């Protein structure tokens, strides 16, 4: 096993406090919350950033580094999203601004927006903070995994519904939607003339099946969709930033650009260098990390099934997130109990659409730390008896 994937916690909690994850809680708390990895970045990325600093760092072209845009087009083509060229891309400072810009550009205050829940909290924040009305389509746990309730989805639509927000692969459930599910969602969106924002930031961290961009299904859905992507989940570069909004419909991108004008800043030269190096030269690193994460996912699954069967859990098909139902054991105070009594810092399910008693665990860490975290949980549960 590569040692670099099992870092020493004393090094993760660096003395400068650079890591939000490792400094948010007191030192005896094991942090498995905010979504970055405890692994060092790929050496080709670090090298590219250092090299880039040897070049002028004045204003870059406003549309971004052309070579990076071409790599992103190729990368999307690898996922089956074809027919793009650099003019179909709008670089953003990271992915969250693309979520907010989509909401602002494609809807008006008072409009209704459908989002699956549980979901990455900024989806909900963007709606609430800008007075759009969130309509929740809950993913339902079934023996086959988290499922979309299409009848419920249909009942959510009113004449004020404008936009469907998708997260695929899905944060926090780890679902990777299958072609037939995406086809049904696309048919639904087209029939009701909805715009679609599809956040596909996790597309390269898939363990089962394969990621399918919804905009790749056909021309009609492509023309109604903005796809969001970025480097940070796959390559662990969140602090560098970088994101992209992609659409075959350039009018949609222009609408997003208008919303971001004057606020979005200009492309960051270090972020662009890192992203390009990631796409060109970090595939070996990615394969190792993905295989380690799959091992962590399998370890977690086996542990929960054998030693904590009371915890509700469906193994994720992608991402490095596990969505855990502690309601039966810890009730709605699960997050506080886990923090205070097990000294584990997890994400509170409340922020994901009101899921009190649910916790999101980030397993992008060394296996010894994951094991330690699960044993802390097990001890807490044993003490409840
Ligand atoms: C679905 C999703 N979108 C966006 C982000 C954040 O992206 P960024 O840091 O590039 O703004 C995350 C981070 O976890 C995420 O899970």
TrEMBL record:
User: EC number(s) on record?
Assistant: 4.4.1.13
| Residues of the Aminotransferase class I/classII large domain | 30-376
What domain of life does the UniProt record list for this protein's source? Answer: Bacteria
Q: Which cofactor does it need?
A: pyridoxal 5'-phosphate
One Pfam family of this chain: Aminotran_1_2
Q: Write the signal peptide boundaries.
A: none
Check the record and name the InterPro entries matching this protein. Aminotransferase_I/II_large, C-S_lyase_PatB-like, Class-II_PLP-Dep_Aminotrans, PyrdxlP-dep_Trfase, PyrdxlP-dep_Trfase_major, PyrdxlP-dep_Trfase_small
Q: Does the keyword Mitochondrion apply?
A: no
The record ties this protein, via NCBIfam families, to: C_S_lyase_PatB
The UniProt family comment states: Belongs to the class-II pyridoxal-phosphate-dependent aminotransferase family. MalY/PatB cystathionine beta-lyase subfamily.
**What's the protein here called?**
cysteine-S-conjugate beta-lyase
The gene it comes from is: patB
């Amino acid at each position: 096993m590569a040692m670099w994937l099992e870092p020493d916690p004393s090094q993760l909690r660096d003395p400068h406090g650079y890591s939000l994850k490792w400094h948010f809680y007191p030192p005896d708390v094991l942090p498995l919350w905010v979504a970055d990895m405890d692994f060092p970045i790929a050496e080709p990325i670090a090298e590219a950033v250092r090299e880039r600093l040897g070049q002028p760092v004045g204003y870059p072209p406003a549309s971004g580094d052309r070579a990076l845009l071409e790599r992103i087009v190729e990368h999307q083509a690898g996922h089956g999203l074809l027919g793009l060229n650099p003019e179909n891309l709008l670089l953003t400072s990271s992915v969250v601004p693309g979520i907010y810009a989509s909401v602002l550009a494609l809807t008006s205050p008072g409009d209704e927006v459908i989002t699956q829940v549980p979901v990455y909290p900024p989806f909900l924040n963007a709606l609430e903070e800008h007075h759009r009305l969130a309509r929740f389509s809950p993913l339902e746990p079934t023996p086959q995994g988290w499922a979309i309730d299409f009848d419920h989805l249909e009942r959510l639509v009113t004449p004020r519904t404008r936009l469907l927000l998708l997260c695929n692969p899905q944060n926090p459930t780890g679902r990777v939607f299958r072609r037939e599910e995406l086809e049904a969602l696309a048919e639904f969106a087209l029939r009701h003339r909805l715009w679609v924002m599809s956040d596909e930031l996790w597309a390269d961290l898939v363990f089962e099946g394969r990621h399918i961009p919804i905009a790749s299904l056909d021309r009609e859905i492509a023309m109604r969709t903005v796809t969001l992507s970025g480097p940070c989940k796959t390559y662990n570069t969140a602090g560098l930033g970088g994101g992209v909004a992609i659409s075959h419909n350039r009018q949609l991108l222009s609408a997003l650009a208008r919303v971001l004008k004057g606020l979005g800043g200009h492309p960051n030269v270090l972020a662009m260098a890192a992203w390009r190096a990631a796409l060109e030269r970090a595939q070996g690193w990615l394969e190792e990390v993905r295989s380690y994460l799959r091992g962590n996912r399998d370890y977690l699954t086996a542990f929960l099934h054998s030693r904590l069967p009371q915890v509700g859990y469906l193994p994720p098909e992608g991402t490095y997130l596990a969505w855990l139902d502690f309601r039966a054991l810890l009730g709605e105070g699960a997050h506080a109990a886990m923090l205070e009594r097990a000294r584990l810092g997890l994400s509170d399910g409340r922020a994901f659409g009101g899921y009190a008693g649910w916790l999101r665990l980030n397993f992008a860490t060394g296996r010894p730390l994951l094991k330690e975290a699960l044993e802390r949980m097990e001890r807490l549960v044993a003490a409840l008896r």
